[in-house]
Amino acid sequence: MKKLLAGLIAAIVSVSVATAASVRTTFEVIYSTGFFSSSPNEETRRSVLPTARSEIWKAYLSRLDTSTVRLIEQRRDEIQRRLDEIVTNIEFIDERIDKNARKMSFTVRAVVNDNMVSTLLSAGGARSGQGSPFGFLILPRIQAQARSFDATVTRQASATSGRVNEQVDSDEVKEAAGGTSERSIQGSQVILSAQTKTSGSVTRRAQKSIWSLGDAKDVDAGIVKYLSEAGYEPSTFADLNNECGTVKTAEVRADMIAAESGELSDDVRREVIAAMRKCEQKFFAIGTLDIDSIEQDRNSGGVRVRASVNIKVHDMSRRGAPAVASVGPVAYYGVGPQEDGARSDALKRAATEASQQIVNQLRAKNLN
């Protein structure tokens, strides 16, 4: 029962994280004599509250990708006017005073409303029905099997030997009861020597993974929702391919799943690009969300799943369909009381975060 309750709490927390970010930072302010008594009081904290909110916002910005920061800069005045709504629940965790330097150090924690930031960045987008057509083929893959190989050790040995003959002379003197006898001995001395050398090498083969197709419904729904809200006109590859393609969708998916890198073979890629151009798609996103790690979550006692993201967005209106945005390699995590829930959470979070980064990169380039 305790594990189930902990898992449910973790699931609730994981949902809230998608809409709000907890940020912690430390900053310093210089004070004048008589500004406080022995330690900062409530009046002191109220006076530094605007500074605390500003420092929290700076710390939040440091987490974002450069394309998102550019968009925020474009709407800086509007965001600053609403910073009180964006950064909330400021909590003073630690306070320190350096009387010699006349400085106060504060450690604060606050909540940044991700949804509000995303809404402000999406303002001014194209109205529904007027956005750019945006096709996508983003497959969730699950690591069904992973094979690792032992190292192969190769040894080489070489041996050399030598034989040396040396002539020697020796005098032998013997004493006996009848007197002393002496004789000279001549012969040869043989010296044998041997030397052995060994060398070797170790060959290691990379791990080989076998992938299977995960549930694409939640992933497709999340991407469609976010791209639509951003002003684009998204369509899944399956829908577009039914009208404009010459190769079956199942064959395209099988080609991506079979490849370790998740990329299409050259022949299939040409067919896919041709189908997207025939359907007059402005942008086309292709990539994978790979579930490559499933383990027990130490905090909740539930299951923790990792989804690794690799996605590229191509401009189909230009020759060669160059990539104009990309996400990954980057990983997102999901937690739940059971494996299915944790896996679904990881895929939903990965799809949402990847869509947000793609939109921000395109807008930073004025590609709408």
What are the salient characteristics of this protein?
six-stranded mixed sheet; flat; three-stranded antiparallel sheet; 11 helices; 41% strand; alpha+beta
Short description:
The chain is α+β, with helices and mostly antiparallel strands and 368 residues long.
Description:
With 368 residues, the protein is α+β, with helices and mostly antiparallel strands. The chain has helices spanning 2-17, 42-61, 66-74, 76-81, 83-86, 114-122, 217-229, 237-244, 249-258, 266-278, 339-364, and strands at 20-30, 87-98, 103-113, 133-147, 152-176, 179-203, 208-213, 233-236, 283-296, 303-315, 323-336. Helix content is 36%, strand content 41%. Strands 4, 7, 8, 9, 10 and 11 form a 6-stranded mixed beta sheet that branches. The longest helix is centred in the last third of the chain and has 26 residues, at 339-364. The relative contact order is 0.15.
Summarize the helices and strands and which ones pair or pack.
Blueprint: H1 2-17, E1 20-30, H2 42-61, H3 66-74, H4 76-81, H5 83-86, E2 87-98, E3 103-113, H6 114-122, E4 133-147, E5 152-176, E6 179-203, E7 208-213, H7 217-229, E8 233-236, H8 237-244, H9 249-258, H10 266-278, E9 283-296, E10 303-315, E11 323-336, H11 339-364
Parallel strand pairs: 4-8, 4-9
Antiparallel strand pairs: 1-3, 2-3, 4-7, 5-6, 9-10, 10-11
